[in-house]
Predict the 3D structure of the following.
Amino acid sequence: MLVTNDDELGEVRDAALVIEDGVVVAVERAGAQGDERIDAGGRCVIPGFVDSHTHLVFAGDRSEEFAARMAGAPYGAGGIRVTTEATRAASDDELMRLTRARREEARRAGITHLEIKSGYGLDVETERRLCEVAGQFTDDVTFLGAHVVPAEYEGCADDYVELVCGEMLAACAPRSRWIDVFCEEGAFDADQSAAVLHAGAIAGLGLRVHGNQLGDGPGVQLAVEMGAASVDHCTYLSDADIEALAGSDTVATFLPATDFSTRQPYPDARRAIDAGVEVAIATNCNPGSSYTTSMAFCIALAVRDMRMTAQEALRAATLGGARALRRDDVGHLAPGARADAVILDAPSYTHLVYRPGVPLVAQTITG
Amino acid sequence: MLVTNDDELGEVRDAALVIEDGVVVAVERAGAQGDERIDAGGRCVIPGFVDSHTHLVFAGDRSEEFAARMAGAPYGAGGIRVTTEATRAASDDELMRLTRARREEARRAGITHLEIKSGYGLDVETERRLCEVAGQFTDDVTFLGAHVVPAEYEGCADDYVELVCGEMLAACAPRSRWIDVFCEEGAFDADQSAAVLHAGAIAGLGLRVHGNQLGDGPGVQLAVEMGAASVDHCTYLSDADIEALAGSDTVATFLPATDFSTRQPYPDARRAIDAGVEVAIATNCNPGSSYTTSMAFCIALAVRDMRMTAQEALRAATLGGARALRRDDVGHLAPGARADAVILDAPSYTHLVYRPGVPLVAQTITG
């Protein structure tokens, strides 16, 4: 079975994907000729996963904080500072090495395109370095200076926001496509978040928001009002949030592995989808709240615990991710798209949920 | 870090495991000499997983039933008949091929010893064949003729029990170490289950029980009363069940991936452990209710959703499984044990939970 995510084609049996110079040129019946052939042998072929939310560039490990949380400690945004300390101390070479290893792991998990955020520097020089390292791995770099208020600005959040919107943005904007802000109790409030997004827009960056992770909050409404491409987490969604999203171009990006790893309730994706909200699923790979590159794991949780169908979850992890990044070239396999595909060791994508935890990605094809 | 599960040693840093002829002869400080050396390079080494509950010998696929369940259909024992039909129709060669592939997948997932049940034959000849195939892969073969009442005995469950206890047991006992019964509404009641276990004991088999999966029921009490080695599922445990288990030699084996895949509530393992119950975790790999070989996935669920610590979950998946099979030779790495170990691509076993869905088994060493 071939899944193209193309509205006309959708799921095709006995199909052949014809690729030239890294781009899909046709979807034909099996038996097509070509210089080089890969026979999927009855296995399911899907578009490569598009991971629209990662924090791959960091140093250090927070497995002890994780173990404490599993033993009952609550999750808060403060742990970000622990990673910031380790990341600031790491050399560029070390960050490159760590990020490359994670990127390779993600590729083995079937992720063919991903976004990478800064946000563990929280000073001008380190944020700039993180954007540069991220840029070695993707053209979807997100400047997230407004991840959390660093320790040295404790009690002076507005001063830190001024730094983010000024000198830090100036250093990072040329190296980024997006700006993001963590709009949440314990991070940045609605006014501070709006200031960051506004400054980013003026600098020519697209907008993204972390919001509604730890409770109801202004993140979703702010994202919609400011025309953000995506608002991410959405663990808590009020009726008004759903209504706002449904009438907007803002994608709601769910991060189910984060709800898993922080032992939060899972959001009801069914409710959002039924209301007409465009949804994505992403890994949020980071050392604090979701240290996984397994999009298959995220899909399984989305189906089991967020009431998506396997088909909806697959689309959310491919086409949904592409839409959250406002890209047409990835997340589907129609002619003209990048030839990014995954061969699953299974006859159907349902097996991503039916066989949880089993590494089913047999081969990842990029371009 | 080396985890031995030995009471004295437990977790050892900078350790070397000395192996001769497939058996652990010593645990020493790093730097030990030997003819052949594997350097784990700072990664965590744990005892191989002991999977005390699998149904690896079957034909057919039930992904459509799974998808329907995820869309809201309830789980019942009836689906077993679908697999029975496909399994009866499969040749010995086909069953060998399918089982071998699953056994290899389990090995890649770090499972170094496993139990295999029959139970998809439900007639004398096929049950015998399944026990024979299972015996090619393990010495822990379990005769599960009393899995469910087959279609041809609909309404005549007692007659089927008579067959199981008579001709079928006679054909399967020489090929098995254990007898098991699914004691549950929709399968076998307490009297029928007791009859099966009693007959098995007379035939020299050890006792196992499937119980308390779909609701409160007599399975746990029956298992304890009859001295079963393990009662498996335990999704529903009353106070009386916990009390009975705590005062017994019967292991409570949890199957978290089954609760995941059937969308049942997770049992509270914390409550059982705190009461002094000996616990195990197993995959229950089967095509209907838990089609996974990922013990790491089971461990992650046990910590996140059943309130075990990572250490408890690891022990339950190694030493706990060995105790559920009443074996001293596996599940730990003390001198005299089988040299079955797993090198994790991580510095600590906490990462099995901290990095959910990521295939962390770098190398599986058996004997």
About this structure: Chain B is about 35% helix and 20% strand. The first strand of chain B starts at residue 2 and ends at 3. Residues 92-108 of chain B form the longest helix (17 residues).
